[in-house]
Amino acid sequence: MTASDWRKITKQLKNKPVVLQKFIRHNKPKERTSGIAKRKCERCGRFGAHLNQYNLNLCRQCFREIAEEIGFKKYS
Q1: Can you give the residue range of the structural domain that contains 59?
Q2: Model confidence pLDDT, tens digit, residues 9-44
Q3: How many separate domains does the chain show?
Q4: Predicted TM-score of the model (pTM)
Q5: What SS3 state is found at 29?
Q6: Angle at which helices 17-27 and 3-12 cross, to 10°
Q7: Which value, in Å, is the radius of gyration of the alpha carbons in the chain?
Q8: Quick check: is 76 in a domain?
Q9: Which of helix, strand or coil describes residue 7?
């Protein structure tokens, strides 16, 4: 089960609190302490090509899209 599936199911079980608590207890994705899945892009959720310099926490594709808005200049 992916993290997005887990979120969808919790929304569906919002009106059934007892069932929701049992579901969360047994199916919640574990917190990552190491590996590629620890760092995700805050904008789109990708795992690879991650830039966390300057605490950006963005993938390279998202960084290219919003770099000038953030204040970076393109030298070329």
Answers
A1: 40-71
A2: 888 999 999 999 999 898 887 888 888 888 888 888
A3: 2
A4: 0.57
A5: coil
A6: 170
A7: 17
A8: no
A9: helix
